[in-house]
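quick one, 303 residues, struct below
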Amino acid sequence: MNSASNLTQLLLVKALNESSDGIAIVDARKAGFPVIYASKGFENMTGYASAEVMGKNFRLFQGSDTNQSELVLLRSAMAKGEACIATLRNYRKDGTMYWNELCITPVYDDDGLLSHFISIQKNVSAKILLEQQLKTLTNTDPVSGINNRRHFDERFSNLLSIAKRIQSEMSVLLINLDYFKDFNERYGQSAGDECLQKVGRCIAKSFQRTSDCAARFSGEEFSVVSLSSNLEGLHQHIQKLCELVSTLNIPHSDSPHGVVTITIGGIQHLPNRDTTQEELIELANLKLLAATRNGGNCVNILD
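---
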C-alpha cells in the first residue's frame, strides 16, 4: 500500500472516530453478522470498548429485551441485504437503556455479492422521551389524570374493529358521579377536581387490560370500552367498582348516601359490520339515565 493510500485510510479512520454517532461495520459473509469495526462514538454510546464487541452480534445490545417489533424489520432487511432504519431499545454495558436509531446500509463487493453492513447509530432518547411526554399530554385528561375523550374515541374505534373481525362481544359503560353538581357547589371546584382524580384512578385501575380503555368522557362522566364475553363476570366486576368508590369515603353531605358514589349504565353487545360507536354509546347512555332516575349508586347493564 503506498503512502497516499495509507494517508487516506488513516484520515478515514480518524474521521469515523471523530463522529459523535456510533459507527460499526459487520461482516455479512459470516453467520450472525459479527462486528469487525466499532468507532470511538460507538464506544462512548454503548459503554463497551471496541475490543469487547469484536466478533459479537448486535443482539448483545438488546439483552433480554428482544420482543421489539422493529427488530423483526431489521432482521428481515439484513437477511435480504437491504438498507433499513429502526429505532430500538438498547442497553449499555452498565445496563442503562437508551433509544437507538439504527441505520444500516449494505456493502457489495466487486462481484455484486453482499460483504458487509455499515451501521450508524444515534442516541435519540431525548427525542423519544419528548414524543412520549407529548403523547401523554395529548391523551390525558388534565383534571382526572386518566385517558381523555380523544384517546377513548380512538381506542373505541380500534376495539370495535377488532370485535367485528374476531366476532367478540364488547362492553361499553358510562359512569356518572352521583349528585356531583351539588358536590361542586358545596365543596368548591378544587375539591371537585380532587374527587374526579380519586374516582378516575379507581376506575382506571379496574380496567387495565390491553383490551380495556377507561377515560373521562365529559364533566362528571367516565366511560369504559372493553372486549368482554362474560356478562355475569362483568356485572360482578363493576358492582365491585361501585363498592370501591364508596369505600373511598369522600364526604358528600348533599347525597343520600353520605359519600361520593357512582352509577354505571352500559351494554354488552356482539357488534355486526354495521354497528357504530355512536349507536353503542347511545344504548349505554339510555341504561345510565334509567339507573340515575332510580337514585344512583347502582348498576344497570343490558345484554
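The chain has two domains: 3-129, 140-302.
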